[in-house]
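Co-fold these.
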Amino acid sequence: MGILNVTPDSFSDGGRFVGAQAAVDHARAMQEAGAAIIDVGGESSRPGATGVPEQEELDRVIPMLEALHGAVEVPLSVDTTKPGVMKAAAAAGAGLINDITALRSPGALEAARETGLPVCLMHMQGAPATMQDNPTYSDVLGEVTAFLRQRLDAAAAAGIPRSRLLVDPGFGFGKRDPHNARLLAGLPALTELGVPVLAGLSRKSLVGRVLGRELPDRLAGSVAAAALAAWHGASIIRAHDVAETLDAVNLMAYVRQHGGGDA
Ligand code: 7PJ
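Predicted complex below.
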């Protein structure tokens, strides 16, 4: 899953058309590099970020989805928590809903069901504005697994078939570095929920902190983290650097498939 940010701090150089064209070019390049999905997000969820009003998110995301829909062949994912954006995005050609709040906004379960689209349910402790203040768990792997199981059940109860659901432990979303490490090493426990697991570690500050790397220098760490996630059973890796990440994922897939000892 290639990441396409359409927040004003990305691709913005004043003119909207220039921004849209740059985003379409970037999406095409990620598809060319092997991305199977393009994730489009109009609301920053970085630590400390506050939300954007629905109309502003619609204005950013919907024209972008419409432009991308005709320009790339791979499915488009919409990174949103808002029911209104989910419905408009589906109408504009989105093929997947990626919700970092796991459909907990009022009306989100119903909106997602109405679209008929698959949904990624992500775990987050707290909200982006404050989530990194002092995240606390007694058993992070157990608590995240239980949360995702509960959200899978809630989605199923709302009429979204389990075959349309994915889960994501939400690396960096209300987690300290040891929590992220436990979730990455413990990812096989999440695969036991019986739905595909998505993992996003690309360029995240956890990679930066562990390695002492600022943003431009997190590629190797991000690729290593993606490799571990793929090795431990993640089906989808959300990444900025698609070609490099895909090499790691394909290598892990090869070893998982052929490394059983029959050679
Ligand atoms: C994730 C996401 C993630 C899913 C972001 C960033 C922050 N969606 N959206 N999983 N992260 N499903 O890319 O650093 O990890 S935004």
